[in-house]
Amino acid sequence: MKKKKKTLLDLNRVPTLDELRAYFKENDFSAATYIDIDYDKMDAESVEALEYIKGLVEEKWEPLSREMGLKSDSSYYGKENPLIAMRDNMENLVAGGVMKLLNEKPEMVAEILDHFSQDPDVEKHADAFLNNAVKTMMEVMNYEELAQVVQNNAAYEDFNHDKFNNYRSKDFDRKWNHTRSKVETVSLNEMESAVNDEGESAPAQVADSSVSVEDEVISQLTGQTFWDNISEDDRMLLRIRMSGKTQQEIADALGYKTHSAVTKRLQKLKEIFENSDQ
Asked: Cα separation of 252 and 208, whole Å?
């Protein structure tokens, strides 16, 4: 019978930093967990304890992430961003480990707390220990290298598009639209007066969103008034258009009958924006 491999939880003492490094290098723990975190099955006290522990980790993770390559604070990035997903997974791993210790090895917890309680500088040393532990995890995962890779291969999902005036996502949109499109620039008048195959006036399908109405609206936003006064459907329409979708693709995604309905709505939003700025 294969002998079960020991973990750090099997130690009868606090692991050293060298032991932490060795353990992290031997185990792929980027999406691991010590317990099944199902908030629906947890009591209020456990949820509160879990969130408190995760908050302690995030308090150390945030400034260290900036030192190691994250260009802005985490609120500018989406949950699908690999760096943010890594942070969330590590918070769950650490919090789960602590909860497991509390529930399954209370005598070890008591010993640890007793050890720290005898230290006159307990808060200072505990804070330093947590900072070293988090930094060790990030270094072992090659956070700096990963941050550079993520930055060089950014995707739409990497950014928090619900954050008002998120310059990080706007910068990505501008760069992405500029490099991906070879479409000849079309003026707004040309876009509105294009003629279809039947000789009727119809909105043209322009793939480059840098020349579209909603890009003008978004790029000129200087306050919250316009964004607060439009519906969630309109916000979604603008976000999708900024991602590079055509009017027809937006119509299909949001249930509009024709792409012309989308273009008319974009024009209406431009009017709302211009009126709100007066």
From this structure: 18
Q: What is the pLDDT of residues 164-211, one digit of tens each?
A: 778 888 888 777 765 544 444 444 444 444 444 444 444 444 444 433
The rounded radius of gyration (Å) of the Cα atoms in the chain is 26
Residue with tokens 């008002």, as numbered in its chain: 164
With tokens 């769950």, the residue in question is 92
CA 16 centroid distance within chain: 32
**Which structure tokens are listed for 162?**
């619900």
Can you list the pairs that 256-265 forms with residues at least 24 positions away whose Cβ atoms lie under 8 Å?
259/203, 259/205, 260/202, 260/203, 262/237, 263/191, 263/192, 263/203, 264/203, 265/234, 265/237
Question: Which residue(s) pair with 159 in the sheet?
Answer: 77
